[in-house]
Amino acid sequence: MDYYAIVHNDFDGTASASVYARSIGYLPRKVFFTEPTQLPQLLNTLIIEDGIKKVVIADLGMNQNGLQEAISGLKKIKRFNVEIEWYDHHVWKDEWKTAISNAGVKLVVDTSTCAAGVVFKNVGKSDDEVSKKLVSADCSVDIWLHNDPMGEKLRRIVENNRDYSWKEYLIKKFFNGVIWDEEFENILEDVIDKELKGYSKLMKYVKVYEVDGIKVAVAIRWKGPPDISYAAQYIMARTGANVFVSANGKSISFRSDRYDVRQFALKLGGGGHPLAAGASLRIPLIYRIFRKIGIIGPSLNWVSNKVIPIIQEVKFKQVEVGKT
Q1: In the chain, pLDDT over 70 holds for what percent of residues?
Q2: Neighbours of 10 (CB within 10 A)
Q3: What's the CA angle centered on 227, arms 13 and 314, to 5 degrees?
């Protein structure tokens, strides 16, 4: 049965597509990598080719702003007599689950694991040791367990190249049972070297605020390594902040080591996890132009003026251990 895979453009999405393919024994005809905010549009413009019998969606959450558009797209796909399976681990409201399920989708939401873990728990083969290792590595970094060193290594391999073709290549390697090899080892050495150089430049992109006695670090996205997760850890440790906010011009990301940042993202029409969330946020064109020529201040101030009042309004809510 030929199928499409639609997954998040990251390690968890890549791992989810790989685990699903290994579970059923063959690769998807096409893989579409996207972001949660772009999923509704993709569903509405997706061309169903002859022979496609199933669409599998993984590691893509829902938010209120995109719900109706997503439902419209799902119904269009169903008109081709195509099955739709959706596996996710983000936080969903009950009414979102009901609406998506009523559109004819087999929806599985499980916040106790990473998306690849959700796929494996529901369709995986219990004797598939490769998928087990891949899920362990993925969950280690995606839901902040940090209990498998392979996770930090593989995450860097996947995120080393944002091109979709690179992740398609990795899905084939994982599908064929390759978890680590000399090619990955060489890439890792190069990535680590670039990261170490990148850390020295980070602080010029950051401004630290204090809200109700808690430090919040706001940053404008920099070019090159380190990626946002590693940078967030570094900046929070360097500044003593417990919340990290990063904007890249089109979207905003929130990270924390203890406070629920999803509630902040929801105010901007986004969503995610309690400790890692995001939303669309387009910085005005003139400030983006300044940013391109190295003038960071206007963008940094604009983003700060957007998010700090939201944090002041919503307040901090500590996340219970294990409730991520």
Answers
A1: 99
A2: 23
A3: 85
User: How long is the chain?
Assistant: 324
* Sheet of strand 83-88: strand arrangement: 30-34, 2-8, 52-58, 83-88, 106-109
In the chain, which residue ranges form alpha helices assigned H by DSSP? 11-24, 39-45, 67-78, 94-102, 115-123, 129-142, 149-159, 164-175, 182-199, 228-239, 262-267, 285-292, 297-314
Residues 261, 274: Cα–Cα separation, whole Å: 5
pLDDT band for position 320 (50/70/90)?
Answer: confident
Rounded distance between C-alpha atoms, residue 147 and residue 239, angstroms: 26
Instruction: Measure the CA–CA gap between 220 and 304, rounded to whole angstroms.
Output: 10
Q: Is residue 300 over pLDDT 60?
A: yes
Distance, CA of 70 to CA of 43 (rounded, Å): 6
User: Are residues 151 and 137 in contact, defined by beta-carbon separation less than 8 angstroms?
Assistant: yes
Task: Give pLDDT, residue 224.
Answer: 87
Where on the phi/psi map is residue 13: left (φ > 0), alpha (ψ -120 to 50), or beta? alpha
Cα-Cα-Cα-Cα dihedral sign, residues 175, 179, 183, 187: positive
DSSP, residue by residue, 261-276: -HHHHHHTT-EE-SSE
User: Domains in the chain, please, with CATH?
Assistant: 2-188 (3.40.50.2300), 202-314 (3.10.310.30)
pLDDT digits (tens, 9 = 90+) for 59-73: 999 988 899 999 999
Q: Give the number of other Cβ atoms within 10 Å of residue 61's Cβ.
A: 24
> For residue range 132-161, what is the model confidence (pLDDT) as tens digits?
999 999 999 998 888 999 999 999 999 999
Q: Is 243 helix (H, G, I), strand (E, B) or coil?
A: strand
Distances (CA, A) of 38 to 83, 110, 195, 203: 21, 22, 29, 30
Q: Which residues contact 26 (CB under 8 A, 6 or more apart)?
A: none
Q: Is the confidence at residue 95, as pLDDT, over 80? A: yes
